[in-house]
Write a structure and sequence with these properties.
By secondary structure, the protein is α/β, with parallel strands linked by helices. It contains 16 helices and 17 strands. It has three domains: 17-278, Rossmann fold; 282-406, no CATH class; 409-474, no CATH class. It is 45% helix and 15% strand. The strands form six sheets. It has a four-stranded parallel β-sheet, with helices on both faces. Strands 7-8-9-10 form a four-stranded antiparallel β-sheet. The chain has a three-stranded mixed β-sheet with strand order 14-13-15, covered by helices on one side. A hairpin with a 2-residue loop joins strand 7 (155-158) and strand 8 (161-164). Bound molecules: adenosine monophosphate and zinc ion. The site of adenosine monophosphate (AMP) has 17 residues, from helix 1 and strand 11.
């Protein structure tokens, strides 16, 4: 069996991955807060995990893998959007507007991640909505966890809040390698008079009457963000599981706090054995984020005609533990490579197994850059059957991801047919027909340059595929 090695943030070392139970692997990835479209940076952890999960399927079998990713649907930013809609005159209640915003954002998220070829979360290989828990469906479990933490002396109630007592957990700071005092110096901690220690963080807080809230032993309120992931992962994966992932920006405080909560609520368990963190997608050397305003969404790119498969290729070509930049040049290069590969594998049956060197590269801490080198080599050797099955381990060259290339091919075939018809008309000295074809092609937004060896063409900005189809029909070419 292939030995997978992963860099475990918890130990800061590359370690052999030893599953708790090789017939039942369990993974948790922190999912999005559903208040707006996913930006391109948000897609990075999803794509990294997608490759990891494909590798685990390959090594242990799909039915052995449970992959859970949550939706955070309790949040101030969702509430703010609901309040904006209310102020704009919506007749719905604030609660209904919050639900409406979450619902539409989840639908966008699915559409966008599907377009990138990211597998949906699944339980023992089966895609089910259960594998995508929403925080609002697990409030009872969060309340119970808070009660357990209070009972064990790790949390306390103060003015309708429940707070985690950071000094009660000596390992606090271990994941990010900082002491509580270091963290205090560096972090923006909310100082509140009811906190015993400024580092103590919120497990539960009061909610005002209009906004979503739930009855609890501490009054009407709502959970803090961190307890959501602790409660949902325990409910679906158990108190100990294999791999927990997310962007490096979540290491502190979010993951540090998850560990504190989960380990204190289940003191005999490990919580997550391996912690995987991806580095940030950057723009001009700065983290892409909504708060910095330097972001663009996955949908922006798709709408501009960048195929999901091209986005995926670019995002995976940099190792997940390195910062990366999105550039137009990388996208153009990826598109050209994918077009070439798709041409190579057209009509070819995939080989039975991927190239061993590719699996080795991925097993070595998801060395996707190394995996791409193997794919390039297979393409150069013309080993199309092996290229096809190997690329699919990276979620590339999948049939459902190739519509962009097919659509392009269909357009190219149409233009070629029209140019041939024009050449035939010229040869037959039917200049009226030849000119009509030339004008029709130009009107559809295709630029044609006649050269000594034939005609070259390019699509202009206003290219109109429908006009091209109509022209072909008119000429009896379809
Ligand atoms: P959020 O909705 O901000 O909690 O983020 C959802 C996921 O996207 C988390 O795993 C974050 O770590 C990740 N993330 C956010 N910004 C970036 C970025 N610029 N590059 C890579 N991952 C990011
Ligand atoms: Zn989380």
């Amino acid at each position: 069996m292939v030995q997978i090695r992963l860099t475990n943030t918890r130990t800061r070392r590359k370690e052999d991955f030893q599953p708790i139970d090789p017939t039942n692997l369990r993974l948790y990835l922190c999912g999005p807060t559903v208040y707006d479209r996913a930006h391109l940076g948000n897609a990075r952890p999803v794509l990294v995990f997608d490759v990891l999960v494909r590798l685990l399927h390959h090594v242990y079998g799909r039915e052995a893998v449970t992959y859970v990713r949550n939706f955070t649907d309790v949040d101030d930013k969702i509430n703010a959007e609901a309040q904006r809609r209310k102020a704009a005159g919506s007749p719905l209640s604030l609660e209904a507007l919050v639900a409406e915003r979450s619902e539409e954002t989840i639908a966008w998220y699915h559409a966008d991640m599907d377009a990138l070829g990211a597998m949906r979360p699944h339980i023992r290989g089966k895609v089910t909505p259960l594998a995508e828990p929403r925080a609002t469906a697990y409030i009872a479990q969060m309340i119970q966890m808070n009660l357990d933490l209070i009972a064990r002396g790790h949390a306390y109630e103060a003015e309708g809040h429940v707070l985690f007592d950071v000094r009660s957990f000596p390992d606090y700071g271990k994941l990010s390698g900082r002491s509580v005092d270091d963290m205090m110096a560096g972090a923006r901690v909310e100082v509140a008079p009811f906190k015993r220690d400024p580092m103590d963080f919120v497990l539960w807080k009061p909610s005002d009457d209009e906004l979503p809230g739930w009855d609890s032993p501490w009054g009407r309120g709502r959970p803090g963000w961190h307890i959501e992931c602790s409660a949902m992962s325990a409910a679906l994966l158990g108190p100990s599981f294999d791999i927990h992932g997310g962007g490096i920006d979540l290491q502190f405080p979010h993951h540090e706090n998850e560990i504190a909560q989960s380990c204190c609520a289940h003191p005999t368990e490990d919580f997550a054995r391996y912690w995987l963190h991806n580095e940030m997608l950057q723009v001009e050397g700065k983290k892409m984020s909504k708060s910095l305003g330097n972001f663009f969404t996955v949908r922006d790119l798709l709408d501009r005609g960048v195929p999901g498969e091209v986005i995926r290729f670019v995002m995976l070509s940099t190792h997940y533990r390195k910062p990366m930049d999105w550039t137009e040049a990388k996208a153009a290069e990826a598109e050209a490579v994918l077009r070439r590969w798709r041409g190579l594998v057209a009509g070819i049956e995939p080989a039975t197994s991927p190239a061993p060197a590719l699996v080795e590269a991925l097993a070595d801490d998801l060395n996707t850059a190394g995996a791409f080198a193997v794919l390039h080599e297979l393409a150069a050797r013309g080993d199309a059957a092996r290229l096809l099955v190997s690329a699919r381990m990276l979620g590339l060259l999948l049939p459902e991801m190739g519509r962009w290339a097919e659509a392009d091919n269909a357009v190219a075939a149409r233009i070629e047919a029209l140019l041939e018809a024009r050449a035939a008309a010229r040869k037959a000295r039917d200049f009226a027909r030849a000119d009509a074809i030339r004008d029709g092609i130009a009107a559809a937004g295709v630029e044609v340059k006649d050269t000594a060896t034939g005609s070259e063409w390019a699509l202009a900005a206003g290219f109109d595929a429908k006009a091209l189809d109509a022209l072909a029909r008119e000429l009896g070419l379809t």
